[in-house]
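Hi team,

As requested, here is the filled-out complex form for the zinc ion run. I kept the field names the same as last time so the parser does not choke. Let me know if anything looks off before we queue the next batch.

— J.
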Amino acid sequence: MGVFRKRNILLATAVLLTCGGAGVAWNNVEDAKAVTSALIAPPPAGKLKEIRQTEPVIQIQEPEKKSTQITTPAPARPSVTMPPGKAVTNLDYKNGEKVIYLTFDDGPGPYTEKIVSVLEERGIRGSFFWIGQRMTEAYGHIGREMTDAGHVIGTHTMHHASLSGKSKSYQEREIKDAIRAVEKHIQVPSVYFRPPYGAMNDMTKRIAADEKQYVIYWDVDSRDWNLAKHPEKIIDNVLQNVRPGSIILLHERQQTLKVLPQIIDRLGKQGYSFAALPKPK
Ligand SMILES: [Zn+2]
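And here is what came back:
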């Protein structure tokens, strides 16, 4: 494996951008200066980091079966006003609900259905950021079942590309091709985007805004991709950093599947509930 580097990025202030609907607010660190102090919320302690992961090996594998056996009805998803092209790290529920968001990167792949099964067994929904290159008709079928059941599928570039510092044409191609590939196969609009490695620049944000994409970061990094030999640390990373409204970064990996039931069950005992990312208005 390669080198793991991290770098603190802008975290002057976390901000509540007010919005209507179900009492939900987006925390957006980038608009800190533009919002009155009355709306300023305390930042997650040293949470927002730009993560440089090792490049994953892209192996396209067909799923073993074609049904995720989703049996529970899709729960209602609140809709929120959110700004396209701005990095979102946390969602606050003003009414005190301890709602958190499990997000899974780098699929689809051999663990997609197993992860969905773990979620479904507990009646909860997750959000997935898929790589365009991995899309096949079979995964499209699975993706349609997932979105019908209330899970969310966003994109993660066409080739798991690191976008920061790349040309406009390269970034546009990576982002748009992935959206086209995912939408073509799942036949559902894809409006959420997560840049691989968390690497993006102002141009990435402009492209995302032009494409009406909502950029989803995270405030809890499980580091699961690097903890295959120490899966118990994945649990610690989540449990020690979670707070209401947290967006938790996970990946479609074997070690993640292994600890996912424990993560969900232990958070549930702490009073947390889980939701897919809300619908944008
Ligand atoms: Zn990734």
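Two things worth flagging: Residues 168-186 form the longest helix (19 residues). Confidence is low (pLDDT under 50) at residues 1-25, 29-57.

Thanks,
J.
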